[in-house]
Amino acid sequence: MNPARALYSVVTWGAQPLLRRKLRRRAKAEPGYGVAIGERFGRYPAPIDSLMMHSGSDPLGRFVWIHAVSLGETRAAAILLAALREQLPGMRLLLTHGTATGRAEGEKLLQPGDVQVWQPWDTPGAVSRFLRKFRPAIGILMETEVWPNLVAGCRAHRVPLVLANARLNAKSLRNAQRLAALARPAYSNLAAVWAQTEDDAQRLRAIGARVAGVFGNLKFDVVPDAAQLAQGRSWRAQAQRPVVMLASSREGEEALWLEKLRSKTASASVQLAQAAINSEAPSTEDREDAARTVHPVQWLIVPRHPQRFDEVHQLLLQAGLTVSRRSTWTGAPGAADVWLGDSLGEMALYYGLAHVAMLGGSFAPLGGQNLIEAAACGCPVVLGPHTFNFAEAAELACAAGAAQRVGDMAEGIAQATGLALDPAAHAAASERASRFSTAHRGAAQATAQAVLGLVQRR
């Protein structure tokens, strides 16, 4: 063990009590964090023992291990898993996560014989206990999750560990280079890395990774839930105004949206009041036109993280807006200034419901969220200036006319509203979004075939 990893191991070992305390604290708001805490330290209950398979040295009879840290990675893993089950009939899945939302989403992917546990905390002991318990034929890390002791442990136990759908932005590369004594051995000891883009591949090579292929983004292979999409479009057809969504919004963006919307509404209200002063008393039709000018679209906000649903609800109420939450809908959405999407696993429904989506995480310097699912649902996207987490997908989407880039939140509101209110422009943008999604598929099959090749060589 090199000195850097030895010091790192001491720090992670000493941090275990802090991690336990953090998990207990988070479990108060998100009970999922209180589930099976011992698993995070390589301690597994007896029921898992009864599920274990003792298949000798046959790699095809052993677990295919996928690590998907959180919700987004788990959704990407679901796409890859479908292709893997086709390539490896009867395979058993070992699925690990780091967050409660990832674990909840991952439960939907399990079949009889599969096992789901927490990712082991990155100490040599926890990693070794995990690998001795499950003896996976291969480990697949999704997107970014490279841990020094996990990589070293897999190498010691002769488990090929790969990084699939891999991405590394410029900021993360700089951070890795500052910790090169830890990061370089971890990346260089991966059995293979399959990058999303050529730019990702170049950055990964710069930190020592052996990039074996550039397969594109697995998320392009997503197939939206047809029932959800149909339901969303049905509700959209019933809506009295075009629907604009702030999709996967992150902390601070809802407040920024409120600030800019208030400014826009105040300006419109002043203009209407001045027009009223200069004319006779407005008719009922004039008043309805005025209301549509001030509130021309129906707003839908879907926060990225479920622990913020109540917080965003309170923010909207404090701003004097009426709110209808998805969790209260029994039929069509309720009448309100804002619809609040407070559910998990229903993004296809929300994208079907929206005429246009403003992409969360891109209006604050957070790197943006995934726009690919929106495109697959035929929902045009308006992007803010910050999309470094999905830079190439954002550039390609803009070039294809599936997305439009704006400089700030105020411009985003204006652009999204204008597109939603123009039926012809909206229809054309929706068609371009669907074509863009279809044109970039194929990563799932390429990745599954590469995984199969590694497993069969064992």
From TrEMBL:
It holds the Pfam family Glycos_transf_N. Belongs to the glycosyltransferase group 1 family. Its main location: membrane. InterPro entries: Glycos_transf_N (IPR007507), Glycos_transf_N_sf (IPR038107), Kdotransferase (IPR039901). The keyword Transferase applies. It is found in: Cell membrane. It catalyses: lipid IVA (E. coli) + CMP-3-deoxy-beta-D-manno-octulosonate = alpha-Kdo-(2->6)-lipid IVA (E. coli) + CMP + H(+). The record marks 143, 219 as: Transition state stabilizer. It comes from the Bacteria. GO terms for cellular component: plasma membrane. Involved in lipopolysaccharide (LPS) biosynthesis. Catalyzes the transfer of 3-deoxy-D-manno-octulosonate (Kdo) residue(s) from CMP-Kdo to lipid IV(A), the tetraacyldisaccharide-1,4'-bisphosphate precursor of lipid A. The active site is at 73 (proton acceptor). Its EC number is 2.4.99.12. GO terms for biological process: lipid A biosynthetic process; lipopolysaccharide core region biosynthetic process. The lineage of its organism: Bacteria, Pseudomonadati, Pseudomonadota, Betaproteobacteria, Burkholderiales. GO terms for molecular function: Kdo transferase activity. It comes from Acidovorax kalamii. This is 3-deoxy-D-manno-octulosonic acid transferase. Residues 37-222 form the 3-deoxy-D-manno-octulosonic-acid transferase N-terminal domain. Pathway: Bacterial outer membrane biogenesis; LPS core biosynthesis. The keyword Iron-sulfur does not apply. It is an enzyme of class 2 (transferase). Keywords: Cell membrane, Lipopolysaccharide biosynthesis, Membrane, Transferase.
